[in-house]
């Protein structure tokens, strides 16, 4: 194309597009000693997003809220799955939100109105339906990520314990080692249902629970429409599957992990604190 030919020299103007979202512009008389924090509250006063800035300086500053809510519980390691490698944050539906700025020991607040895109033709009720489904899925994703994080903690402890028992080279450890192997196998079996195991070639593997949740989130979030009946039904079944996954892990902790702890006597026990977001 002509406009891309080298004979244009520096006559073609190129610049970044404006950032998408609500602009929070503020002036600081002095450079902040601590990060500046912006909180976004819904009309009910519920905190839906927190943004921190370490780059704010003396003078005029800007923090941009991308109109998305807070990310849920993240994986301690790994990530991706379900069409998308980034964080999953639901879009805030149209409405009035309170922006609270914390800087230099002071707190200021303003109201911002998020308006519907007139090109979509969605009603406020349809936006709310979409938001409700996304928030429900985000909760399930947090629960699943928490399960994976806790199982990784257990696996790490079992691995250390197994090395310790093997290093002792004591025949008396035979029963404990067998119990450790059974516990490792049980946890790995559950993990295989929650997320795709490494290495890559993920598209050749069946989607796991975490992948399914993320895919449905991306699917609903990407559409300028309320969730379909089948999508809403899938949210219900995914909730059931997540509850079953949590119960299955509780059973492993109650049985296999407790068996290991009962056999290792005076050694440090395999500990796990079940947190349920």
Summary tags:
alpha+beta; two-stranded antiparallel ribbon; 6 strands
What can you see in these coordinates?
The chain has 277 residues and is of the alpha+beta class. Helix content is 42%, strand content 16%. It has four helices and six strands. The chain has helices at 124-168, 174-194, 209-222, 229-263, and strands at residues 22-28, 36-41, 47-53, 59-65, 95-103, 106-114. Helix 3 (209-222) packs antiparallel against helix 4.
Note the total helix count: 4
Overall shape: it is extended
**Total strand segments:** 6
Q: Based on helices, strands and strand pairing, what is the structural class?
A: alpha+beta
Share of helical residues: 40-55%
Q: What is the distance, rounded to the nearest whole angstrom, between the alpha carbons of the first and last residues? A: 54 Å
| Nearest-integer average pLDDT | 90
Please render the helix and strand layout as text.
Elements: E1 22-28, E2 36-41, E3 47-53, E4 59-65, E5 95-103, E6 106-114, H1 124-168, H2 174-194, H3 209-222, H4 229-263
Antiparallel strand pairs: 1-4, 2-3, 2-5, 5-6
Helix pairs in contact: 1-2, 1-3, 1-4, 2-4, 3-4
Question: Quick recap of the structure?
Answer:
The chain has 277 residues and is of the alpha+beta class.
